[in-house]
Amino acid sequence: KQDELVLVTDGRYKFQSAEQLKAAGVQARIEIGNLAGQKEAIGAAARGIARVGLEAADVTWARQRGFASEWFPDAELVPTENIIENLRRVKDEGELHRMREAARIADDALAAVRPLLAQGITEQDFAIALDFEIRKLGASGNSFETIVAAGPNGAKPHARPSSRKIEEGELVVLDFGAIVDGYCSDMTRTVCAGEPSPELQKMVDVVAESQRAGVAAVKAGVSAAEVDKVCRDVIVDAGWGDAFMHSTGHGVGLDIHEAPWVSATSTDTLAPGHVVTVEPGVYLEGLGGVRIEDTVVVTNDGCYPLTTTTKELAVACQP
């Protein structure tokens, strides 16, 4: 019937589905069954409906063919884009509460393990320690595979942790996040194991200035492309425009990367309740990289951060 929500799943989620819907405040009829039973329940719910929407970004061509021939043979299947995604752009207070907690866990986890950077630890071992601390503090998991990139590895924006030891005087790019009740956090900090060279210090100073300018530009009604430009202009003026090789940011929520998009080509306009990252970077082959990232909530007057770890160059504590 019109406006009725139906969730179809199998017996593995009989109790879990009811608990999670209740926790989310969603009222829906739950149908439990094997594949044939699920097909029957969906068919009954869709009976008389002429057009059925399928999320184009998430339904494979093979699944679409199966739906067309077996599940909805009498309906027109319509590929939909950004219907659900647009509903997810503005976060309500319940969503922000979960994201705030995910960010807090990430902040606290880094504070707990950061002294290890001064002990000759490998990138892999530091990533393991950080991930363990995130889980120990209550997260259900990581938002994405943790990035720990020291020295020349830092020049690769999405480097994977290696067996390479972190050496004194090297910059270390740390990009990581936590998940709480399905919602993600995202933060990058660049720290140093010891004292950086003047050139490395300059990289940090330029990226920090760029990131501060970008955060200051975030406000409801501002185009996301303008935020990207503000960050990029600072780095271009420093002579490293070609070394900023990715977009400035992205939305965060149930997915670690979602709308709105903060890039030079974005057509998005920021609105109250959007949650976006601001993460400019500079990457110099053979030397290293710097990225500084906060996740911020857009307001009418500007924004406020969910991530609170200091953005100053954090020289690793000695044990």
End-to-end separation in angstroms reads: 65 Å
**Number of strand segments:** 18
Q: Assign an overall shape.
A: elongated
Spatial strand arrangement across the major sheet: 6-7-10-18
Low-pLDDT residue intervals, each spanning 5 or more residues: none
Can you give the helix content as a percent range?
25-40%
Beta-strand residue fraction: 15-25%
Query: What is the averaged pLDDT score?
Result: 94
Report the order of strands and helices: EHEHEHEHHHEEEEEEHHEEEEEEEE
Alpha plus pi helix count? 8
| Structural Rg | 23 Å
Q: What profile does the largest beta sheet have?
A: 4 strands, mixed
Q: How does the helix and strand content classify structurally?
A: alpha+beta
Q: How would you explain this protein's 3D organization?
A:
The chain has 319 residues and is of the alpha+beta class. It contains eight helices and 18 strands. The strands form seven sheets. Strands 6-7-10-18 form a four-stranded mixed β-sheet, with helices on one face. A three-stranded antiparallel β-sheet has the order 5-8-9. The chain starts with 5 loop residues before the first strand and ends with a strand. The model has no long low-confidence stretch (mean pLDDT 94).
Topology:
Blueprint: E1 6-9, H1 14-24, E2 29-32, H2 35-45, E3 51-55, H3 61-71, E4 76-80, H4 83-89, H5 93-113, H6 123-136, E5 141-142, E6 147-150, E7 171-176, E8 178-180, E9 183-184, E10 187-192, H7 198-217, H8 224-237, E11 249-251, E12 258-262, E13 275-278, E14 281-284, E15 288-291, E16 294-298, E17 303-305, E18 314-315
Parallel strand pairs: 1-2, 3-4, 10-18
Antiparallel strand pairs: 5-8, 6-7, 7-10, 8-9, 11-12, 13-16, 14-15, 16-17
Helix pairs in contact: 5-6, 7-8
